[in-house]
Amino acid sequence: MPDGLSVELNDSLARMRGTDHARPRCAALVGTVGQAAHCGIYEWRPGPCREFGLRAPMGIGDEACARARARHGLAPLA
Ligand code: SF4
């Protein structure tokens, strides 16, 4: 993990910088959401991101997906 991208919460937990903001945006996210965006540290992304990637097909288009898209002015997926 490159320095400065995560915030240590305690001895065993950390979070990606920016993910606790009112309008969350991970510090490692590159590009413009809704146009072209990608993880800038894909090869080094943390475990929860890797696990989400394995589960993501199940969440695409669900209510949480729709809420996240709405926060960026995007319509829900059909
Ligand atoms: S996949 Fe990358 S951009 Fe997305 S939350 Fe994880 S570290 Fe941040």
Topology:
Elements: E1 6-8, E2 14-16, E3 29-32, E4 36-39, H1 47-59, H2 63-71
Antiparallel strand pairs: 1-2, 3-4
Task: Please describe what this structure looks like.
By secondary structure, this protein is α+β, with helices and mostly antiparallel strands. It has one domain. The protein has 2 helices and 4 strands, in the order E-E-E-E-H-H. It has helices at residues 47-59, 63-71, and strands at residues 6-8, 14-16, 29-32, 36-39. A hairpin with a 3-residue loop joins strand 3 and strand 4 (36-39). Bound molecules: iron/sulfur cluster (SF4). Residues 16, 26, 28-29, 39, 41, 45, 49 line the site of iron/sulfur cluster. Iron/sulfur cluster is lined by residues 16, 26, 28-29, 39, 41, 45, 49.
Summarize the structure.
By secondary structure, the chain is of the alpha+beta class.
Give the helix/strand class: alpha+beta
Mean pLDDT, to the nearest integer, reads 89
Provide the spatial order of strands within the biggest beta sheet.
1-2
Strand count: 4
Distance between the termini: 35 Å
Uncertain segments: none
What is the number of helices? 2
Number of domains as seen in the coordinates: 1
Tell me which oligomeric state these chains represent: single chain
Q: What is bound: which ligands?
A: iron/sulfur cluster
Radius of gyration: 13 Å
Largest sheet at a glance?
A: 2 strands, antiparallel
State the shape: globular
DSSP strand (E) fraction?
15-25%
- Helix fraction, binned, reads 25-40%
N to C succession of SSEs: EEEEHH
